[in-house]
Amino acid sequence: MKYISLPDDKFVFRLKKKYSKKQFLKKCDVTKGTFGENFALEIYNKMFEYAIDVIAEYKKYYSDEYESIRDFLFWRYCIPFETLDEILSESGKSGYIGIFHDHSWHLEEKNEFSRAVKDLFEKLEKR
Question: Where are the domains of the chain?
């Protein structure tokens, strides 16, 4: 699992796979009808409903135009090559890479939200 907050409020992340809502909530281990479930669903929507699935987008629309997904992400989304190398190092063309814009997802900050999202990312990547 990798995630990076970029200066222009872009948040890029990579997971081993794209989760269904049911799988996601099970991994989160939250109780139905609680604040924890609502919080998890808010994060799920951001990561899987609102985010752009860039691997799927690349394969469906841009694989003929760009030589690699790395080039596609650089030219289409202006993500620096250093960041791409870090994100793509473990995934290549497999897994799930999402990108969305949100000024609140600066996970380098030390606050409760950042800790909760980081913990969630770790849960998602455990088998």
Answer: 2-125
Residue 107: what pLDDT? 59
pTM of the prediction? 0.77
Positions of the chain with pLDDT lower than 70, given as ranges: 1, 90-94, 103-110, 127
Phi, psi for 10 (deg, rounded to 5) = -90, 140
38, amino acid identity: N
Tokens of 61: 């629309």
Write the single-letter amino acid at 55.
I
DSSP 53: E
pLDDT at 120: 79
> What b/e sequence results for 41-58 when a residue is b if at least 16 CB atoms lie within 10 Å of its CB, and e otherwise?
bebbebbbeebeebbebb
**3-class secondary-structure state, position 62:** helix
